[in-house]
Design a protein that fits this description.
By secondary structure, the protein is α/β, with parallel strands linked by helices. The protein is built from 14 helices and 8 strands. The two termini are 23 Å apart. It binds S-adenosyl-L-homocysteine. The site of S-adenosyl-L-homocysteine has 18 residues, from loops.
């Protein structure tokens, strides 16, 4: 798909024309990855963070957040629950937390693999190559690291580097993760202040260049305890080309991601459900997505993993999330995917 065509779709607002985009994305999804919807159990293992991302509620500067880090035994209990629930994968996600040490995470990964055999996805931010290599050797299968936006100037503005450190940057890290043998996932937020439709089109091209195994896109949701949501940024003059952080723009990005990277695993995200609790997840699944990520985080911690406000399903139990996910999948005539739901092999590998 050419860039002009991508941009034309991003600008399209007529419901009857968009139906064509949804239809194409849904057909590509069915042809390439089938009707199974894979369930990835999400365990939010720590909300501690050393970074100052201007969009995220977990940022170190947010003093109003109660911080936690789950104990290894608690994480393992969640993984056992995932196995009982019939999930194929657990996703361990956290702020960038040095308290999650190289040895500590290796132990946890080894424990989960040994006891459950589930696929393990890590999403622990920008970590050292030595750590990433060791976790891979311990058995981690996949790594999720959104590049957030392909616009380098915008990225620097919302995601300041750590003082006094040389960092490879997320795009280089993604290539390293691939080299280490991880299935590699990335993605962006849709509607960041200062992000244009051209930027979103470039994001899609970067998805293609990186040949991603997993792509997660969700709307940017302002969090009042972050600088991006208050003061200067909020009162910046909104450019005419500003990408809106709407449900509709997010569906367009999901559908176009499917068309650009047809074999990728694409979740219908919680941020989408947050904008439309009633049917956001279903629309995502019908417009290109093939993955849901039911929450497994234990009750006492869940409310504190507040990357953005009013997150969907904060008060539900893990079992409620499972039942809800299954119900929604069956109601739209799809089935729960079996097995780990690994990425399809790349063309080059046959
Ligand atoms: N520390 C890890 C995990 C972060 S949370 C990391 O940085 O990779 C996972 C994702 O939540 C982020 O990559 C970002 O895309 C999304 N996110 C953070 N703040 C958000 C906000 N205000 N609105 C919408 N999505 C947000």
């Amino acid at each position: 798909m050419k860039k002009e065509e991508i941009i034309a779709w991003l600008k399209e607002d007529r419901a009857e024309d968009l139906r064509e985009l949804w239809r194409r994305a849904d057909r590509a999804r069915r042809d390439w990855v089938g009707d199974g919807v894979h369930l990835r159990g999400l365990i939010e293992i720590s909300n501690r963070c050393v970074r100052q991302c201007r969009y995220c509620g977990l940022r170190a500067g947010n003093r109003s957040l109660t911080r936690y880090r789950m104990a290894p035994g608690e994480i393992l209990d969640c993984a056992r629950e995932a196995l009982r629930f019939g999930y194929g994968t657990v996703v361990l996600q956290a702020g960038e937390d040095p308290g999650l040490t190289r040895e500590g995470v290796s132990e946890i990964v080894r424990g989960i693999k040994l006891e459950t055999g589930l696929a393990v996805t890590l999403s622990l931010g920008e970590r050292g190559l030595d750590e990433l290599a060791e976790w891979r050797a311990a058995g981690a299968d996949r790594y999720l690291l959104r590049f957030e936006t392909s616009n380098a100037a915008l990225y620097r503005r919302i995601h300041p580097p750590r003082r006094g450190r040389e960092e490879p940057g997320r795009i280089r890290l993604l290539r390293e993760l691939r080299r280490l043998g991880y299935e590699t996932g990335s993605g962006v937020m849709v509607g960041i202040p200062g992000q244009t439709l051209q930027d979103l089109a470039a994001d899609l091209e970067l998805f293609r260049d990186l040949d991603l195994d997993m792509i997660g896109v969700g709307p940017y949701i302002p969090h009042s305890a972050t600088p991006l949501a208050r003061g200067g940024e909020a009162s910046r003059k909104v450019s005419e080309d500003q990408a809106p952080n709407t449900e509709l723009m997010t569906y367009k990005m999901v559908a176009l991601s499917r068309l650009v990277c047809p074999r990728a695993n694409i979740p219908s995200t919680t941020a989408l459900a947050t904008l439309n609790l009633e049917s956001g997840r279903e629309f995502g699944l019908q417009r290109g997505a093939n993955v849901l990520m039911p929450n497994l985080t234990p009750e006492p911690y869940r409310v504190h993993y507040e990357i953005y406000p009013n997150k969907a399903c904060l008060r539900e139990s893990a079992a409620d999330c499972r039942d809800c996910a299954r119900g929604r999948i069956e109601a739209i005539g799809r089935s729960v995917g079996r097995g780990p739901g690994s990425a399809l092999k790349r063309q080059a590998e046959g």
